[in-house]
Amino acid sequence: MTIEYATRYRRASRIPAEPGRPYFIEKGEGDRAHLFGDLITIYAGGEQTENTFNFFTVEGPKGDLIPAHLHPDTHEVFYITAGAVRLFVEDTEGNQQEKLLTPGDFGFVPKNCPHAYRMERHHSQVVGVAAGPGGTFERFFENLGAPAEQLGLPSEPVIPAPGRFASVPERYDVRFLPDHQWRTR
Q1: Residue 133: inside a domain, yes or no?
Q2: Is the residue at 19 inside a domain?
Q3: How large is the C-alpha radius of gyration of the chain?
Q4: Which of 23, 46, 108, 133 is close enough to 51 for a disulfide, judged by CB 3.0 to 4.6 Å?
Q5: Would you place residue 16 in the very low, low, confident or very high pLDDT band (cuts 50, 70, 90)?
Q6: How would DSSP label each residue in the chain?
Q7: pTM of the predicted model, to two decimals?
Q8: Count of domains in the chain?
Q9: Which of 1, 22, 3 is nearest to 13 (CA)?
Q10: Are 70 and 115 in contact (CB under 8 A)?
Q11: What residue numbers bound the domain in which 48 lies?
């Protein structure tokens, strides 16, 4: 039996809206969204953690580079559970690096550091955790992309209109860097 809750973000969710309440979610049954070619599943967010951290997965096919961006107040973790993901990151002094991460590998991106990633193999999966004084950004995915009721990757990529990259993200501690160049590759 699965309990569903209504939240201010969704008509139905398996995640309780109020903090301090234990809960369990079966694989893939969190709040889902499609963005680009990926499926993002949120298992815990700001509502449950008093805006201290979020926990989500990103699954996707081999594809294009996710646009360069940064989080002014949020630290982000990348833990790879399937496939391969190339993480690009730049520190606050402008030093760039990239690393191919495979299952069991971990990447940490401090707040205010530009970063991007690319799925390098089909059926890649990242477990993400983000935390910081600015709150959490998990609702960014469904506000820039599209909420998804069904399991699985989108049948067509969900590409937001260019103007949305400037408006929606600022509410979620995400700042896109459209002119950013990666010198590492």
Answers
A1: yes
A2: yes
A3: 16
A4: 46
A5: confident
A6: ----B--SS-SSBSS-SSTT------TT-SEEEEEBTEEEEEEE-HHHHTTSEEEEEEEE-S-PPPPPEE-TT-EEEEEEEES-EEEEEE-TTS-EEEEEE-TT-EEEE-TT--EEEEE-STTEEEEEEEE-TT---TTHHHHHSEEE-SSS--SS-B---TTHHHHSGGGGT-EE-TT---S--
A7: 0.90
A8: 1
A9: 3
A10: yes
A11: 5-153+160-176
Burial of residue 96 (CB within 10 Å: 0-12, 13-18, 19+) is: middle
pLDDT for 1 equals 40
Both tokens of residue 79? 């833990």
9: confidence class by pLDDT, cuts 50, 70, 90: low
pLDDT of 99-144, one tens digit each?
999 999 999 999 999 999 999 999 999 999 999 876 678 888 988 9
CA dihedral sign of residues 76, 129, 101, 86 = negative
Residue 107 lies in a domain: yes
Statement: residue 180 has pLDDT above 90: yes
Residue 182 lies in a domain: no
Q: What is the CATH number of the domain that holds 14?
A: 2.60.120.10
Q: How far apart are the first and last CA of the chain?
A: 48
